[in-house]
Amino acid sequence: MNTVQLAAEDLSLFGRDVWWLVVVKAVFCFAFLMVTVLFSIVWERKVVAWMQLRIGPNRHGPWGMLQSLADGVKLMLKEDIIVKRADKVVYVLAPIIAAIPAFMAIAVIPFGPAGDEVSIFGQRTSMQLTDLPIAMLYILAVASVGIYGIVLAGWSSGSTYPLLGGLRSCAQMISYEIAMGAAFASVFLYSGSMSTSAIVEAQQDRWFIVLLPVSFIIYVVTMVGETNRAPFDMPESEGDLVGGFNTEYSSIKFALFMLAEYVNMVTVSAVSVTLFLGGWRAPYPISTFWEGANHGWWPLLWFVLKVQLLLFFFIWLRGTLPRVRYDQLMKLGWKVLIPVSVVWLMMVATVRALRNEAYEIGDIALYVGGAVVAILLLSLVADVFRDKRDKREKAAAADAAGAAEPFDPLAGGFPVPPKPGQHLAPVPRRRPRSERELIVSGGANPDSDREEGAENV
After folding, report:
1. Residue 454: what pLDDT?
2. What domain range includes position 145?
């Protein structure tokens, strides 16, 4: 394994292409993203329509496959409006800042093996634009820069709802980026490199989704949160923010935000395939009986199929799960994903250190299992004490509320909600339906009869 990793970390294969071949590969990366985005939009509308028993787009092109292209042309031809209160320079630059970094990460994603070159117009080259010894750090940096476009769009619009959407996106990015980085670190420990081609080479015997299942689950959750997709689409929640950070945008600038979102979906799916699903390698049954499955142009096919599988996962989530509340979103990021990712990273580092010290697999499993059991016991004890404390606090609050006087919500002239410890006066029950019908039809009012009887007494 070390020999394979050292050979894969030799990046001398990159940087030897002629300039026009570099341009061709860059255009291919751009075209791959654009075509995948156009297809993903139609596919999403078709799949969600199928899940909701609707027809979906079926007018533009065969089977409605040109619907996304028609939508893009329509957006570009719409009137471009700049609101008066906006900071015009930042307002115009924000969608550009959001869109450009989305295209940059694909430059270091391998579509095929680095050592197995293909022929393009008579020139032998690898199916990867370039690679870096710190390619994964480059991807993290580029993904973080794209958030600035959303934050600046909300701030520069001069409106309250876009500002709230931008702040939500910033807080969401911070909370989910930490867990994503911890998931990446586990892959770095097993592959011994941050180079994307080296990480794929390290999965020759076994994909990292088998070795690092917790890291894969954490990354899948964080990539949905990073792309602001349902059920984590709080920065553009139309239920409480009208449209979120892009409320004041129209025409081509609005289209750039939508383009950035779908390109980010393709990018994070490609990163997930590279880190955990074997990259360009053929699936297990195919690679065993077909030796040429991982050579030539075939790796490009396996890579595209894996990316489309993850894009379907995005679509399935949107058509299945409801949007979570913002406090639930933050709680998941800070109280669940980050602690779990840090504990899992410590376990992975412990296993790798024990393997380097030539410990047996059984001993490693025993140590790791003991650590897991100890952590679970400690968490169980903490939960028991926390539950007892919560019960005592609730009982004390109930006693205090019972002893307090009824709260008058209209004491200040307008209705206000009660504070903690206060409670509203009981609402009188309505008359039975038979008595209400009796009063409406002209019969005697039983309340007035009782009042007259009391007066006579």
Report:
1. 46
2. 2-283+291-382
